[in-house]
């Protein structure tokens, strides 16, 4: 598909098909009181396929079949609903292929903008269908038509519903917004301490994932709280990972990581070793060969070449090639295809090109795939 992708026709067909599918379900289940329909389950791969959404519908009767304590979670969990329809859109495969081709015809930024345009189109579709159904008297004002997506949940809910409807049906979003505003007004050091306290939390207005992102943005201000967390067994791994991703390579951070390295165990120890590698202090890990498990040393050596490489040092295969003399099988397993390789910049292409002539298969394969990905980015 070229730049002539027909967005207008796509939106019109989606709107008409969604209205028809909801009307049909309501007619087929007249004895149920439906409270929502939703488009969701949109599978996508960056620079790859973008799927059509599934259609879900749920009724008060179906919701009441679940234990009372489960109902708040089930209410907006589309794949726990009674009525799911993957075939509501005619010629779905043709539209998926056309949309994917449109998204993939240029660089990653075009794929991202195309996907965002797709989401906003689905928002308009849902709003239009809800208006049609209400205007014709098929449903009442409380019946919702939503776009549900885990990654963009709040954004889509706020675009589909009015502010008063958000407060009534998704009150947790307003609670979260108030908490975000409160924390944003705190001094930087207090903000950092707050976000560190939220690490590992999967409930409340700000969860662990949001806290991680906030700490990355805070940078240096996050260091004291993260360093202190290195002393908490079972939680140190997350602090080490963030310190490595942020790229805080000052002495206080590297000394704290070095001290924690031999004191910790399991995932805490492994991520502390990786963090030191991310910060250019692999020497502190290598110095402890014999005192650390071999797998911890190997995972640190390999870390700068994996997809976890967030704040990278320039690509350099020399340490990897030296380590392959000692741990060829373990490193080959750690960097086998499918594990996820780092992305390189144009400035690193020369080292990757040198890697193509390495005596080691692992390095040659890694270099070839990194260069291939770099070429894809430039298309």
Question: Could you give the topology of this structure?
Answer:
Layout: H1 7-28, E1 34-40, E2 54-59, H2 60-63, H3 71-74, E3 83-85, H4 92-104, H5 108-135, E4 144-148, H6 153-160, H7 163-169, H8 171-184, H9 188-197, H10 208-218, H11 223-229, H12 236-246, H13 251-263, H14 266-278, H15 282-286, H16 294-302, H17 318-324, H18 328-334, H19 349-355, H20 361-378
Parallel strand pairs: 1-4
Antiparallel strand pairs: 1-2, 2-3
Helix pairs in contact: 1-5, 4-5, 7-8, 9-10, 10-12, 11-12, 12-14, 13-14, 14-16, 19-20
Report on this model:
- The protein has 379 residues and is mainly alpha-helical.
- The protein contains 20 helices and four strands.
- The protein has a four-stranded mixed β-sheet with strand order 3-2-1-4.
- The longest helix is centred in the first third of the chain and has 28 residues.
- The chain is globular.
- The model has no long low-confidence stretch (mean pLDDT 93).
